[in-house]
Amino acid sequence: MAISLTEPAAERVRNHLQTRGSGIGLRIGIKKTGCNGFAYVVNYADGVNEEDRVFEDRGVTVVVDEESLALIDGTEVDFVKEGLNEAFRFRNPNVSGECGCGESFSV
């Protein structure tokens, strides 16, 4: 079980944590929502809970709760800039469908 980061995603997290001045890494989870059932939730991790799994990739700590990990195991997180927009993007091998706007997915 693992979550990985591309170099642009790792650089974004490292830079933001440095600017923020606190935090241990990136927290990734899911919530039930949207047209297809699930959406990604991304925050900066300030600590680790008992139900969390912790991964290290490219010098960045990635924290995922066990319930979310079952749906996003094997996901690669990227950070992309398109014009004025920038966002984390997920390459989740477990996805069976996504909504047209890309905000939610199903497994």
Topology diagram in text:
Blueprint: E1 4-5, H1 7-20, E2 25-33, E3 37-45, E4 52-57, E5 60-65, H2 66-72, E6 76-82, E7 85-91, E8 97-98, E9 105-106
Describe what you observe in this structure.
With 107 residues, this protein is an alpha/beta fold. The chain has a single domain (4-94), classed as HesB-like domain (Hypothetical Protein Aq_1857, Chain: A). Helices cover 20% and strands 47% of the residues. The chain is built from 2 helices and 9 strands. The chain has helices at residues 7-20, 66-72; strands spanning 4-5, 25-33, 37-45, 52-57, 60-65, 76-82, 85-91, 97-98, 105-106. The strands form 3 sheets. It has a 4-stranded mixed β-sheet with strand order 3-2-5-4. It has a 3-stranded mixed β-sheet with strand order 1-6-7. Strand 2 and strand 3 (37-45) form a beta hairpin. It is globular and about 35 Å long. The mean pLDDT is 89.
Spell the H/E element sequence.
EHEEEEHEEEE
Kindly report the oligomeric state of this protein. Answer: single chain
CATH fold field value: Hypothetical Protein Aq_1857, Chain: A
Proportion in β-strands = over 45%
Q: Whole-number radius of gyration?
A: 13 Å
Number of strands: 9
Largest sheet: 4 strands, mixed
Tally the helices: 2
Short description:
With 107 residues, the chain is α/β, with parallel strands linked by helices. It is built from 2 helices and 9 strands, in the order E-H-E-E-E-E-H-E-E-E-E.
